[in-house]
Specification:
A five-stranded mixed sheet has the order 3-2-1-4-5, with helices on both faces. The protein folds into four domains: 8-80, no CATH class; 98-153; 161-241, no CATH class; 254-418, Nucleotidyltransferase, domain 5 (2-Layer Sandwich), CATH 3.30.420.10. A hairpin with a 5-residue loop joins strand 1 and strand 2. It is of the alpha/beta class and 419 residues long. It has 20 helices and five strands. It is elongated and about 90 Å long.
């Protein structure tokens, strides 16, 4: 890529107000280096991938592997935009479509008048007149070119209020340096200048001006005055869409579990959890409460959709009626429990936070599994067949709690009794 020369006399000028942005040579060099190392195509992938993830560490790791780039390069590109992706552009339902522009081009080539074309398309004649005039007239109008230019004209980027109002920018930078939060600054401005809309700004605008340095409004050094030191912007709206770990929507407490589950009088009620191995690898363990029969499920990752689909596939192989409920830990890996219940007709109950003894059979089984799968084991190296062989060993081992009967034999009795 051709290097662009910078005007040193311009970039070396110091900011007049503390905290205002100084477009230094360093900023330009960082942007240029990121463009050279990643390229425009990869930037589109990065922007799309980080839009819903909030720029988390795990998401950046997946981008690094997928794009085969260094973590520092990915982080530089994402940090330049504060981890925020622009809203996806959509064509207005009132605007002319590409198909309508094709019809206009064909009818103009046939010599039809604009009024006749407007009647065929159901559009106002003035709309077609402006469309043809802004794209060169009847003789040179081309649908593809007109549609491309219309898409470019619809961008109309709005300038950040802090960039167009220097007095407001100076006040915001001064208050940030005094360790005021953006929320406090926004509220104070509304109270101080109630009738002057130009001297008011939303908290999100301040946050974005800090994290998105390409806006060139507030210096990044002001971030150190915020209460929380984040590399990327984590908006509250995104946090509401993705509840924190332990905050499972519509979770049914273990206290609502029927009495027949608690006393193990009826078979078909299971306990489950994830067993962690080396390098963030996991597998799901399922234990039937009455027989202590074990199922192991291989997992490529621990996200909720992967876990629920894998468990659903596994339990469908069981005899009909042998699984009625599943008691799980408070981990977010079963956050999609409602979809799991709809797909399998299995009710899911969640233990209380930090109460592993409420699924004691499963915890005991996980301890037994460590004989075959130590904590340093990379669980992705084990196929499902190998995990089934480990489960078979446990299921054919006599258990004292069963009167030295094996879980496999106990489960066989249950299946025979239920017909």
């Amino acid at each position: 890529m051709k290097r662009v020369g910078w005007n040193r006399s311009r970039t070396r000028s110091a900011p007049k107000v503390l905290g205002e942005f100084n477009p230094s040579t360093q900023h330009h060099m960082r942007s240029e280096a990121a463009w050279v190392c990643v390229g425009p195509g990869c930037r589109g992938v990065i922007g799309t991938s980080c839009g819903h993830a909030g720029g988390g560490a795990s998401q950046l790791g997946r981008l690094r592997i997928g794009l085969r780039r260094a973590s520092s390069v990915i982080h530089t590109v994402v940090a330049a935009e504060g981890g925020i992706t622009a809203r996806p552009r959509r064509r207005s339902r009132l605007a002319l479509s590409s198909a309508e522009r094709e019809e206009i081009s064909r009818h103009l080539a046939c010599g039809h008048s604009l009024r006749a074309i407007s009647q065929m398309l159901g559009r106002a004649p003035s709309t077609l007149s402006r469309e043809v005039a802004r794209n060169g007239g009847r003789s040179v109008y081309r649908a593809a070119v007109a549609d491309k230019q219309a898409w470019q004209r619809t961008r109309r980027p709005q300038h950040c209020r802090l960039s167009t109002h220097p007095a407001l920018r100076r006040i915001v930078a001064h208050k940030l340096a005094q360790q005021w939060s953006p929320q406090r600054i926004s509220g104070w401005l509304r109270c101080t200048f109630p009738s002057d809309a130009d001297m008011q700004v939303s908290p999100e605008t301040i946050y974005r001006s800090l994290f998105v340095q390409s806006r060139g409004v507030l210096r990044r050094c002001l971030l150190k005055h915020l209460r929380r030191q984040h590399s990327f912007r984590h908006a509250r709206a995104g946090a509401r869409l993705h509840p924190r770990q332990g905050q499972i929507l519509d979770a049914v407490s273990i206290r609502e579990r029927p009495a027949e589950v608690r006393d193990r009088a009826v078979p078909g009620h299971w306990e489950g959890d994830l067993l962690e191995g080396a390098r963030g690898t996991f597998l799901a363990t399922l234990v039937e409460r009455q027989s202590r029969y074990v199922l192991l499920v291989r997992l490529p990752s621990k996200d909720t959709h992967t876990v629920t689909r894998a468990i659903a596939r596994r339990i469908r192989r069981l005899p009909l009626g042998l699984i009625k409920s599943l008691t799980w830990d408070r981990g977010g890996e079963l956050a999609a429990h409602r979809a799991f219940t709809v797909a399998t007709n299995v009710k899911v109950y969640f233990c209380d936070p930090r109460s592993p003894w409420q699924r004691g059979s499963n915890e005991n089984t996980n301890g037994l599994l460590r004989q075959y799968l130590p904590p340093a084991t990379n669980l992705t190296d084990h196929s499902q067949a190998q995990l089934d062989a480990i489960a078979l060993r446990l299921n054919t081992r006599p258990r004292m709690t069963l009167g030295y009967q094996t879980p496999a034999a106990k489960l066989a009795e249950i299946v025979a009794a239920t017909g």
